[in-house]
Amino acid sequence: MRRPAVAYGVVALAAWALLQVLWSGTAGVAAFDPDDYMRLVQVGDLMDGAGWYDLHQHRLDPPTGVPMHWTRLPDLPIALVAGLLEGGHGRTDALLAAARVVPAGLLLVFLLAMGWAAAPVLPGLSRLVLLAVLCVAGPVLMAFLPGRVDHHGYHLIATAVLTGALLRIAGGGEARHMGLLAGLAGAVGLWVSHELAPWLVVFSGALAMDWVVSGGRLRQPLVFAGTLLAAVLAIMPVAHPPADWTAAACDGFSAATVGLAAMIAVFWALLAALGRPRLACGPVRRLGAAGLAGGAAAAGFALLLPDCLASPYGVLDPAVGVVWLDFVKEARPLASLPAGEAETLLRFLIVPALGLAFAAGAAARGQGHRRRQWLALALVATAGLLAPFYQVRLVSDAALFAAIPAAAACVATWRWAGRLRHAAPRALLKAAPALGMAAILTLGTGTAGHGDAAAPAAAGPPCDTARAAPALAQLPATAGPLLIAAPIDRGPELLVRTPHAVVAAPYHRGPDGLLAVDALFRATDMDAARAIVDGRGIDIVLVCRAGPDRERYRGAGAPSLVDRLAAGTPPPWLRPLSLPDGAGMLAFRTTGP
């Protein structure tokens, strides 16, 4: 058992090193997205002395600022690395460098966690195939690109641990301490991101179905549920001050998280009571008991937290959806994406579909604990494959759940090929997995911007905030930071690269700023635009010459403010500023009345 584990670790380390070399030459700053930059802003505030509980972004939509729904845990490794580098590089460069180092460490942890998770069904050296499958399951590894310092890497690690615990509990023999491990992983994952919540429900459902099939003991699921609730309660005073313990926010770690953990605990307690041998002595009765317990727990959650069932954002102003959330591709259903991205969708769904098909077949053919393990994997893989039809961002989870059975399918294909008598079909079948993975890698990735970018309004270089930032950072400010109105996705990077403030960034807890920027940039009445500028105290108006951030603010029937700025005809109360060539941006300083 030790040799295969060591071999997997060595090959995983080699694969990790190769990925770092490849990514270092191709990713760079392009790997950052607004969430990554905002994470660096939060870390910078912490290094500047912000309180542990202070997650308020004061330079976002001042003077009130925006309370973020994130947590401190992902900040710590970034702050540690940045603190070590700051002396020789300066704060901004140290944060940007740390954002390249931390994802590399998380990727190595993830690869090792996946190898551990797969061990019950991929014994020996067959586990090595999993590394190849993960490399073609693109959405998974993209969460660990240089610059990806938001919560997704931690989420995937916690999900991998839950998957490994599920296989061991379903296997019976290796279940010792797995309930405890799963509960701790679930609690930490919920602290990092509420996105783990539905997978904890799926995890519980898979364990319940394993019990329905086997009629075994419920000790480990009960340990899982109890540990999850206890750990969530223990994290609460670390995550929030006492005054906020009863606040139920659906978008982050809060009393709503405690409610979820409590409902999972209620489910397992009811199932233990209803599932006593005298009451549930057969699969049909056990299924009925599971249905009753699940229905009661779901009803309790719906009664206590009805807003959280509709959306993780709770009650979101529909206007915010129109001006921002509807443009966020990863938050949309898979079927709503442009038809031109069909190749990308196919690539992202191949591994989940293959994994589900093999897991279902193995469950149907298997016996004893092997059947139960494959059934558990088939259930979570089914949920994973369906999840992107709710939100595209869940393709990563779908690929993770299916990677283990997909690797097992490759191993089984190789073994089946060895039984063939004739050399030609044997060689072709053995090569099929490698050829299939190569084919997946050759499929186009496809792109799609926000809105209709088919006809750019102006030719020119792409909008490059990094090139524009030094000139903006040097602008003098007399009474506090200057306030910049910029396309919302540019806001977080401006906060990292300049000392100024921004009106808006892509976060639902700052709806006023989101609506203000949209109204300003779309305004066809220049008096109305000026009123927004004066009312907000905006000092700088920053727009893109071309691309999605230009197209989304095109006027309908009359030129918008952005149309006028891009055409070189700004209103008299905006004075052009000089930006470097290649920035692809236009900056204007507001003037007096």
Structure description:
This protein has 593 residues and is mostly helical. Among the domains are: 185-316; 465-590, 3-Layer(aba) Sandwich (Rossmann fold). It has helices at 2-26, 34-47, 75-89, 91-118, 128-136, 138-141, 152-171, 178-192, 197-214, 219-239, 255-274, 283-304, 306-310, 318-323, 342-365, 368-386, 395-418, 423-442, 465-473, 491-497, 511-522, 526-536, 548-551, 561-566; strands at 56-57, 66-67, 483-485, 501-502, 540-544, 574-577, 585-590. The protein has a five-stranded mixed β-sheet. Helix 2 runs parallel beside helix 20, helix 4 (91-118) packs parallel to helix 7 and helix 7 runs antiparallel to helix 16. The longest helix is centred in the first third of the chain and has 28 residues, at 91-118. It is globular and about 80 Å long.
